[in-house]
Amino acid sequence: MEDKSSILIDGDKKTIWNAITDAHKLSQWYVPGSPWKITKLSVGEKGTFTLMPSRHNNLSEMLPMTFTIKL
Predict the structure, then answer these.
(1) What does the CA dihedral 27, 2, 38, 17 come to, rounded to 10 degrees?
(2) In total, how many domains does the chain have?
(3) What is the pLDDT of residue 62?
(4) Conformation bin of residue 10: beta by default, left when phi > 0, alpha when psi is -120 to 50
(5) Is residue 7 in a domain?
């Protein structure tokens, strides 16, 4: 079974797009310290990140995850 979740970011599209496509900004507000890979910056495209163990989660090892860009 696939786990799914989503987040809603309230703001104008330009600011949101910048926040989710700029790796530096993305890592500031969502899972800091986790590496991101977004191969194509388009609505509907998938990307990946690896959630790293930190003091903010209960992980003992890295957890690869995927996401889809939707607006």
Answers:
(1) -70
(2) 1
(3) 92
(4) beta
(5) no
